[in-house]
Design goal:
Blueprint: H1 4-43, H2 48-51, E1 56-61, E2 64-71, E3 78-82, H3 93-101, E4 105-109, H4 127-141, E5 146-150, H5 152-163, E6 170-174, H6 196-205, H7 213-218, H8 229-236, H9 244-251, H10 253-256, E7 277-282, H11 290-299, E8 305-308, H12 315-318, H13 320-337
Parallel strand pairs: 3-4, 3-5, 5-6, 6-7, 7-8
Antiparallel strand pairs: 1-2, 2-4
Helix pairs in contact: 1-6, 4-5, 6-9
Amino acid sequence: MRSLEWRKTRASCMVRSLLRTLLWITALLALVVAGYRIAADQRERFTAQDLLPEAGRFVDTAHGRIHAIDAGPEDGTPVLLIHGSVGWAGLWEETLADLAAKGYRATAIDLPPMGLSDRDNFTDYSRQAQGLRILAFIEATGITPVIVAHSFGAGAAVEALMTEPDAFAGAIVVAGALALGEDGGGRSVPVPLGSEVVREIAIANTVTNPHLTRPLLSRFVHRNEAITDAHIAAIQYPFDRIGTTDTIARWLPTLFVPPRGAASSNPENYATITRPVSLIWGEQDTVTPPEQGEALQTALGNAPIYWLGDVGHIPQIESPVAFHDVLGKALAEIAARN
């Protein structure tokens, strides 16, 4: 029988071996994490001007320079498109083309820190500030549009609508992430993301990591096969702008904490909206589930809602033909109510 001492020695060796293995794994993971952060800095080397698309332009406003992409006849009915989180004007390419073909003057803009609009270390990314940017763009361009806003961007759009209703002909909310009935007062981001450095590392390893664009996008749609290489390329395009990882990290808390004191978060305020509003929602949306669409419909006094079957959170990507069909109907319905 082997001695007790021998068994203790053997157990000690096994523990040391396990610890060494864990240390190597930890070191490897740290290198991977650091590597993606370094890779982000190396990738992000272009200015907004460098990345300006052929169809894009910059509009000087009271709230900074805003990037816009236009399509359609200049005398067409104006439609203003607002993207969701981690989106930008370029993601509306198919919708811009469809609206232009129908005779609308369609314009998609970027809300910072996404896309190519102005941003800096002191930019306010609150819902209220984003709403003021939309109003500033409208004032600078002299349009009175129907605003079409998706997901996270719907909060800014509704905030603008409630602030200055006469600036709009109407609104269409697409899978709006409005946090109805919630207020972020007294709330903060999860503890691990309290540090801006940690947030930068997290963003570099996820949102701006090109290897994860498709897996992350697939979490927002119902049919993954609808995601094309063109969609992936469009999402990634502005990520090469200088400082993208840093600025998205500064914006990130607005994604985790509901806005503080925003008029658009209070369901009671929706009864005061005087402009026609319609809704478009995917029946299989798991990000802003159908019950959220129903709650918004109720708050708006039974506003028209267009349901898209077999569709998740991003109908303009997942089912563009069906989306453009109901968008056209919603725009016609709003025109009839004006």
